[in-house]
User: Fold this.
Amino acid sequence: MGWHPYDLDHLAQEIVLKARKKDPDSLNQAYKMRATCAYGLERFWGEHLRLKAQKPAKAEFVANVWTGFVGLMAKADVNLPGDMLSGQDSEAAIQVVAEQLWRIPPDQQQAPLAVLTALCDAVVWWTQRLKTGKGGGD
Amino acid sequence: MGELPRLLRRFAAIADQSFVNDLPAPYSCSQNLKGRSGNKGVTLFFNLGFMEVTPTAGLDDWIPKPLRGEIPADRLVIVDDADIGLIHDMALYRQSRVKLADDMKKVDGGAFFNVEALPEGCVLIFPLALKPEETDGWKPFGSQVCRELYFGGLESVGFGRCEVTLVKPASQEVQ
Assistant:
């Protein structure tokens, strides 16, 4: 019983600091992640696929946000797939994860998506504060 | 069980003193509340956290009688005093606005501001005090008990539209 905060800012700060340490150029992914939220969970999850092979640091930033989010929702007994793949993986492997997301009834997607959006807002906020000034690009 | 909720106690004091002895505990909810049911009761999700609440009978007694048709009886949740501020804050309707310069397509110097408003559908309950000799003749809405009013002026930047219902409480304070 009672109120259980997700501590989004704590998680977001950790993720952004990790991304900055690995590659400051990866930080601009924060804005892209926030933008994908409008299109649903599967669009966000799919975002890391394109980056995995060519730009691993950027893919890792996206993956850390997704796995962090999956961990938060697990605390509330909502189970989402935590698998991170690559665009090079087999169609079957990608489809298995996508199917798991598509199978969630629309009314049960709303709450996780609202949390993901709030987490992305926190990640964007911390990105703006922790930018090194170096780097950029997509 | 924590402290009994302050806002409900206040409402009971205004509307019906007999309620004071029958206050529901924090984290109770309507019996048919729509939410994710699990072994810990019903889970409600918010942007910044989630809340586990326990279905409890009789909460709908708390809906003021004139509003029974309008307030859904299956969406009542009692929260702890420490949480209600955050919940209100998460629910606020927020908007950024600018004043444009009169002769150019740009922001007028410094005229960029944010506004916050209570979400549509909020129910606010407050007492009106009248002198005893005025109570019978006081009919601000004529024969009606309900009217749309606009609260505030320019300061309420378009958010002041309210439907006001006058209700006589079960018990009245006397001098």
